[in-house]
Amino acid sequence: MKYLIKYFIDFTVLVFLYAFVFFKKWRTQGRDSLLVNTLMYAYLSLVLYFTMMPVVVSIPFILDHPYKAMNLIPFIDVSLGRGDFSRQVLLNIIMTLPFGFLFPLTRNKRARFGVTVFFCFLMSLGIELLQPFFDRSSDITDLITNVTGGALGYGLYVMFKPVTFWILKRLKTK
Description:
mainly alpha
C-alpha cells in the first residue's frame, strides 16, 4: 500500500499538470489538436511510469545511493545469453512505437523522419541518463532499441497518414 501511494502522488501531479496547464491550451487549438496532444501526454506519462516512477517522492533521495554508470556495450545481454533479452529488446521497441507515430502529429505534420528519430533519441537518452538517479540501471541497448521503435513508429505514421488525417479532419470540422 505504501508503494502505491508513491505512484498515486506522481499520477496526481500529472493529472493536475494536464488539467491546469495543458488542457486549456490544447482545447483552444481545436478538438483534433486536443486529441493528439492528450494522447501524446498520456503516452509519455505511461513511459514515465514504466521507466522512472515514482519520481516526486524519490527526488529528496536521488543522491542517497551510488550512481551506476550506463552499460555501454550494446546487446551484451544478448551475446552472453543473460536474462530474457529478447523480451527486453521487443518491449523497448514497442514502448517507443507510439512516439514515432504521435510526434509528427503533435508537430502539425511538420516533423520529418530525421526530426522524429532525433527527438525519440533525446527522450530515450534523457530517460537512460536519469534512471540511475532513481536507483535503476541504464543500458545503451535500451537507447538503440528505443530509437528503432521510434523509427518504426514513424513508418506506421507514414502508412496510416491518410486515414489519420481523415479522422483528424473530421474532428476539426465538428
